[in-house]
Structure formats: C-alpha cells, structure tokens
C-alpha cells in the first residue's frame, strides 16, 4: 500500500481483490493498493488469484500451532 494513500478503518469490512488478496478495510484499501474489488467478503483459498497460497496456508498452520501450544501451557501439559 503506498504511503500517500493510507486506508484507515475502525471495523473490518473485508473485500476480495482481483489479485486474490483479502483487503480488511474494504474498497478504500483495495483502491489504495491499485486493485479492483472482485467480490465483497473474504477471498477463498485457491481462487486463482496471485496471492501466495502456500504462504497463507503456512500462516494458518502457525496460528493453529500457537493456539494449541497456548492451551497446552495453560493446562500444564508442557
């Protein structure tokens, strides 16, 4: 996102860009990135966009792992 075009949002209003990336601040954020809005709502994994799907999947795996680890520590399993 260019520095000259900040998109400020106080609540999530996700849109799916034509590049396959979900823009959480809506149309304004997608416009700042120079991307057309493909649909309102979240992008779906494997939608043919240019977003790095393996990177998104890896991030999801890390998030799930951290949640599992957090609960394990909380309940004294580790």
Automatic annotation (TrEMBL):
Keywords: Membrane, Transmembrane, Transmembrane helix. The chain crosses the membrane at residues 57-77. InterPro entries: Kazal_dom, Kazal_dom_sf. It comes from the Eukaryota. SUPFAM superfamilies: Kazal-type serine protease inhibitors (SSF100895). Residues 1-45 form the Kazal-like domain. The keyword Transmembrane helix applies. PROSITE patterns: KAZAL_2. This is Kazal-like domain-containing protein. The lineage of its organism: Eukaryota, Viridiplantae, Streptophyta, Embryophyta, Tracheophyta.
